[in-house]
Amino acid sequence: MDNLTVIKIGGNVIDDSAALQRFLTAFAKLAGPKLLIHGGGKIATQIAAKLGVETTMVDGRRITDQAMLNVVTMVYGGLVNKQIVAKLQALDVNAIGLTGADASTVLSEKRPVKDINYGFVGDIKEVDSGQIQFFLRQELTPVFAPITYDEVGNLLNTNADTMASAIAVDMSHHNSVTLIYCFEKKGVLADPNDDSSVILELTPTLYAEYKAAGTINKGMIPKLDNAFQALQQGVSKVIICHADEVALAVEQGAGTTLKQ
Amino acid sequence: MDNLTVIKIGGNVIDDSAALQRFLTAFAKLAGPKLLIHGGGKIATQIAAKLGVETTMVDGRRITDQAMLNVVTMVYGGLVNKQIVAKLQALDVNAIGLTGADASTVLSEKRPVKDINYGFVGDIKEVDSGQIQFFLRQELTPVFAPITYDEVGNLLNTNADTMASAIAVDMSHHNSVTLIYCFEKKGVLADPNDDSSVILELTPTLYAEYKAAGTINKGMIPKLDNAFQALQQGVSKVIICHADEVALAVEQGAGTTLKQ
């Protein structure tokens, strides 16, 4: 098995059923082994509100008490994950929905409490890429929800970007891995107000310059940090592009390609 | 692979966290390949109520409109399933949580509307026992939520007893299968008011007699019909017992054993 495509889609695609269907249709057509990691979207916050569970975000991260953990387990691990699996099956992709707990694919540990108590949030310790490889060899397409587990029976809410890069890095022991982050823009923008100003290639030096200039904003920084780290740790290629351009990105190139 | 144990646990175990932990501890210790199917429990009804989704039951079956389907997908496929998987992982069982959509293990079709429109309820068409066998050979323990899918992208709410018997029957092409239904009594009772009146062996003739006498009640009839059908279709043994006696049932015998 040579090339593996690992794709992460975020909440903006999950929340828009037409966009999700377009993405899944393109994803279904991608050649070769592939793997999907999805984020949560606004549904978790909406359902939490209806259930009387308050949402608290710190620096874009969700504080996860037991009640919120139950909500994200339901929404990410149940509703979103299984709807994607059923839709992919209808597109002739033999998808299998997983959290990190399933087949012990992604083990994490509860984030230690320092300044902030994030609650049931997991930092990834170990990916069982051998197990994931085994699914791929069986022509299954893993679809991961951003939930992992610890060794003592807890599920843990986990950042989907981090989960995507951790899986991509570990899979790079077996494969040449292309990691694609799909988001709502056509790529990383040189001018945040100009959607056509996509940076075609981004190196660590350029990234540092854009950060210093304040061009690359808050939300993009953890995503890009993750992405550069993945490159350093063995992933062959990282692309950041719009969900609608995923086929183009794989086949011809689109969005921003990160280089070392 | 010779003997496979297929166990179904119902809502009464799911709803009682101490009972669930006792059951999972016993399940973890069972020798040989095994497979779990769980029901839903009252949590789905409670969460539906909080979300403003009305629960309508006809003859003990849940009418499943789109909103209720979303609730059961969240609760059965997400919350309950993943909590069981995480707990089993902590007990050193390499569990993998599945709906029928995952790896296309259990395909169904939306129940046709006759007198009653059950909504998104699935009647099982096909079990991919080869795929399930493949998980078992990898020393994975499948944990099924009672949700299946059709070929056009819909998830379908499915009776857990029926799902257990359909899986057990199909697995009997590969294995000698023992199917165990765990419930809140110690077995099928000759006197519903006397918990010690467990019928040790039940044949179709005896079953017909108990039904005619009204001893075997409404809720038990579909369960026993399923169970006898499973026996006729190749399952080696069917046991109906209390969740606390599952180890005893496997090792020495407990509860009611169905015979042809």
TrEMBL record, chains A, B:
It catalyses: N-acetyl-L-glutamate + ATP = N-acetyl-L-glutamyl 5-phosphate + ADP. Substrate binds at residues 40-41, 62, 157. Gene3D superfamilies: Acetylglutamate kinase-like. Keywords: Amino-acid biosynthesis, Arginine biosynthesis, ATP-binding, Cytoplasm, Kinase, Nucleotide-binding, Transferase. The keyword ATP-binding applies. InterPro entries: AceGlu_kinase-like_sf, AcgluKinase_fam, ArgB, Asp/Glu/Uridylate_kinase. Residues 4-241 form the Aspartate/glutamate/uridylate kinase domain. Catalyzes the ATP-dependent phosphorylation of N-acetyl-L-glutamate. The lineage of its organism: Bacteria, Pseudomonadati, Bacteroidota, Cytophagia, Cytophagales. Its EC number is 2.7.2.8. It comes from the Bacteria. Belongs to the acetylglutamate kinase family. ArgB subfamily. Pfam families: AA_kinase. The record marks 8, 223 as: Transition state stabilizer. It is an enzyme of class 2 (transferase). Pathway: Amino-acid biosynthesis; L-arginine biosynthesis; N(2)-acetyl-L-ornithine from L-glutamate: step 2/4. It is found in: Cytoplasm. The keyword Kinase applies. This is Acetylglutamate kinase. One of its GO terms (molecular function) is acetylglutamate kinase activity. Transmembrane segments: none annotated.
